[in-house]
Amino acid sequence: MGKIVAIANQKGGVGKTTTAVNLAAALAFAELKVLLIDMDPQANATSGLGFTPSKLKASIYDVIISDTPIESIISDTEIDQLFIAPSRIELTGAEVELVTVISRESRLKKSLKNITDKYDIIIIDCPPSLGLLTINSLTASNSVMIPLQCEYYALEGLSQLINTINLIKDNLNPDLEMEGILLTMYDPRNNLSREVHTQVKDYFKEKLFNTIIPRNVKLSEAPSYGKPIFSYDIRSKGSESYIELAREILKRL
């Protein structure tokens, strides 16, 4: 049965979607069958793989709200072995619509029940919040990866996220584990980046990934072309770093 990994952080702009898209692509290039689920109403993971969200007939919104079978919304991508369950802006209203729904925290988990064993790994790109969409994602997952930006206030709010993870583990998903902390937007010339690295390493120890994602302009440019970094510039520092991250994940699998 495939492993389900949620990529979550309630802070925006930390490289969450960049990590979801490029890690999924790297694992697909390693010949794993990968499903990327876009649970973010901004649909950046969807557009980052070349899809136009507004032109989609159905999305993960229909799965969560209307019990549409998730198999019917999954699409191939330009990368062999990489598939996506896309998002649309309608997902913005899902949290309000879910308030009165029975077992609202487990809608995604229920939808994945029949397809989990069809993939080697499922990666969920969570929205930058700790609302019902993120709770659904964590309830459905085996583990959670937290991208952490190497800047001031990087640790702000992290304790709240870890507390949420522990609450979900205690009440909704006892199998949920911490996959690890991933440092992103690292600049070795910057004293602050090095200080954040030291602090996080001292506190989280073995929960910190060895791979560090650098601040890299190619990583920022690739989504505007609807491509993961490997299809845009495979020789870039960003590409090399996500290959290394995929290797770490493969060892754990």
UniProtKB/TrEMBL annotation:
Pfam family, one: AAA_31
Domain AAA: 3-178
Source organism, top-level taxon: Bacteria
Protein name: Cobyrinic acid ac-diamide synthase
Originating organism: Flexistipes sinusarabici (strain ATCC 49648 / DSM 4947 / MAS 10)
